[in-house]
Known about the structure:
The chain is mainly β. It has one helix at about 125-130; strands at about 10, 15-20, 25-30, 35-40, 40-50, 50-60, 65-80, 90-100, 105-115, 120-125, 135.
Amino acid sequence: MSDKAIKATIGRYEHAKFPDLKIGLVQVKTDTGARSSSIHATDIEEFERDGEAWVKFNFVDDQHEGKKKHSEAPLWKEKYVRSSNGRKQKRYFIHTKIKFANGKTYPIKISLTDRGKMRYPVLLGRRLLAGRFIVDVSKTFALGDDVG
């Protein structure tokens, strides 16, 4: 069996960083019921840079004293998403990278949304998990604690 066929076991909660967004260590929640991943973003604004659409936003991590981090990224697409409460809402999606404590970095397509009422600022959906991880909901921080 090749190394590519071996899937890492990911727990219900993990530690991760978003290096391209300059977002340090955060706790993320895996959710096999969610199709796409999302990150807590406030003050989202679309703007143009060098003829391309970009978005700027604030990431607020309530787990770490509500620290606010300003980030910018090229806009991948806008689309309507049905949230867990059944309502459709327009969301901005970006491409970025997520780094886990196992030292591996993965590309991720992630939506920007206000997750302020949620316990975890980042939700990892099936599009990131499928083909890469085996989800063991009985474990937490299965990939480790130190993202580095």
